[in-house]
Amino acid sequence: MITELGHFALILAFMIAIVQTVVPLIGAQKRWSGWMAVAEPAAQAQFAFTAFAFGALMWAFVTSDFSVRLVTENSHSAKPMLYKISGTWGNHEGSMLLWVLIVSLFGAAASVWGGGLPPTLKARVLAVQASIGVAFFGFILFTSNPFLRLVNPPFDGQDLNPLLQDPGLAFHPPFLYLGYVGLSMAFSFAVAALIEGRVDAAWGRWVRPWTLAAWIFLTIGIALGSWWAYYELGWGGFWFWDPVENASFMPWLLSAALLHSAIVVEKRESLKSWTILLAILAFGFSLIGTFIVRSGLLTSVHAFANDPERGVVILVILAIFTGGALTLFAARAQAMEAKGVFSMVSRESALVANNLLLAVSCFVVFVGTLWPVVAEMAFDRKLSVGAPFFNAAFPPFMVALGLLLPIGAMLPWKRAKVAKTVISLRYAFVLALALAGLVWAMQSGRSLLGPVGVLLGAWVVSGAALDLWQRAGRSDQLARLFRLPRADWGKALAHAGLGVTIFAIAGLTAWQKEDIRVANLNQPFSVGPFELTLVDVVEARGPNYFTTMGVVEVTKNGRPEAVLRPEKRIYPVAQMPTTEAAIDYRFTRDLYVVIGDAQEGGGFTMRTYIKPFANWIWGGCLMMALGGLFSLSDRRFRVAAGARKAAVQGVPAE
């Protein structure tokens, strides 16, 4: 009964979304306040019904209702409760329901917290947001219904993909979806502004919090996915340049560019057309990611790889929304007249350079991700574009971004003297150069990657700290430092987080050690400064799997360091093996051990990695997300200070 109610609620949400798309748009065009007012209750009702439908599906998973086909195909009665819950979105149909739930959530949030918006703009924003919901409600109901019943339900289910039975994957998709689906709100603001023909400082202030919220969630989601790949897949990497990883990384790059571009719109009323274009492209790349994951076009370790027919439907949705928005942009771009004028050397110019570097790096990732498909379709050649291409093509743009970041953040608006800013950063540069030189001397002639990473990381972190210190002024500096707006602290923390991540990635890549061998019982072997001994291998049973677990004792300089228990699991229902790495986490390094199959001559295959500064990668990501949260909590964002006044004074640019 609950399943049928969930299905009915989904249909009602679909119908409400249609009303929310049509009525407020007509009302905004005719200036009918009653019709425009329909948008707010409709957005909230749409979210309520969608949430009920999602809750009904989750209840079916929690109670192991195997009369629901989706539960049978993706769950099992012996599965731990956490993975029964996460099984709700660990499949195509359930994840699409989560998709529309988040679309409706952002629409409902805008209806509640958008009180400072002009009525016509608010009505149009909510109508465009609802139109996205209409497309995906229709996609779910007509091609991917999660509530289908089985005539003859089985006694038990087929289990969830074992790779997805992990806490990291339980929380990774919701955060990721909150990120790249949340970019739909920036898209809605952009299209609504194009329809109205007006983009001003108030619009830049309104769109920034929604973009920032989506960017924060996307940062957390990507970090969780990278961490999961690091410890779960057993190859010890943090980023595999997998198509699905790239699908979320591309919108992250564009949303970061959009955040910085919206600042110029708010502060200087410049870059209006470019900001609108970025808002369209950021969500467009989110739709591209959805298509990549669900069409089966590209192979990935965690793609849904559904039938191409449903992929074609998503491609049509992508073409309608992105193509329609770009067409509207082409028709209205001339109306987005820039008011602020700035010189070649100014903070505006630095933000333009920031945008170009982020956009071009996104294009590089896009080309590398889809080039195998293009080559096969156009030239009938099977190509593989992997980590070597991305590792060669992508880092130069990040190096340039890292070098520019501290200087650009401290340049004055409108007109600046770069020499003055560079001189004020001299201590930060000397510190970074000294640390890089120290590392170069200590690493005894290895590659430049480590010293360059130290230079960039220290430069960005110390530059962010110096910028914050100078903002406090010269008198009573320490006291004023803690009275700075939260947005200033958030900016410094996010930039410092990027510096930490750059350093950690370079350090791990340059200094990691790897050892692959057949390890025999009670025969010690050395990896770097550690001595490892496989003292036992035991067979055990988990809730829904069997495991072969190694017991590895680790010593350093003759002293006990850790006892690690790597596993190789078999899930009998899914008939699928997984590797569970054992990791000794420390502040400056990880010791990473993976056990493989038993060998005919005795012993077991073992892989051992020493990963310097691995945890600093996710620490840097956490710093970036916290920086975003600090900025989002700034009073100017929370209450949109001055937004009403700016909205009243704004004149349509027609």
Give structural notes:
- The chain is of the alpha+beta class and 654 residues long.
- Helices cover 64% and strands 11% of the residues.
- It has helices at 2-30, 33-37, 39-62, 69-74, 81-86, 92-113, 119-143, 167-180, 183-196, 201-232, 243-268, 272-295, 308-332, 347-379, 387-393, 395-410, 418-424, 426-442, 449-471, 477-481, 486-511, 614-632, 635-638, 643-649, and strands at 513-519, 525-527, 530-541, 546-556, 559-564, 567-571, 576-580, 582-585, 589-598, 604-612.
- Strands 2, 3, 4, 5, 6 and 7 form a six-stranded antiparallel beta sheet that branches. A four-stranded antiparallel beta sheet has the order 1-10-9-8.
- The protein is globular and about 80 Å long.
In a nutshell, what does this entry contain?
The chain is an alpha+beta fold and 654 residues long.
Low-confidence stretches: 639-654
Q: What percent of residues are in strands?
A: 5-15%
> Can you tell me the overall shape?
globular
> Using DSSP, what is the number of strands?
10
Mean pLDDT over all positions: 86
Report how far apart the termini are. 55 Å
Q: How large, in whole angstroms, is the Cα Rg?
A: 26 Å
- Computed structural class: alpha+beta
The tally of helices reads 24
Largest sheet: 6 strands, antiparallel
**Share of helix, binned:** 55-70%
Structural features:
alpha+beta; 654 residues; 4-stranded antiparallel β-sheet; 11% strand; disordered C terminus
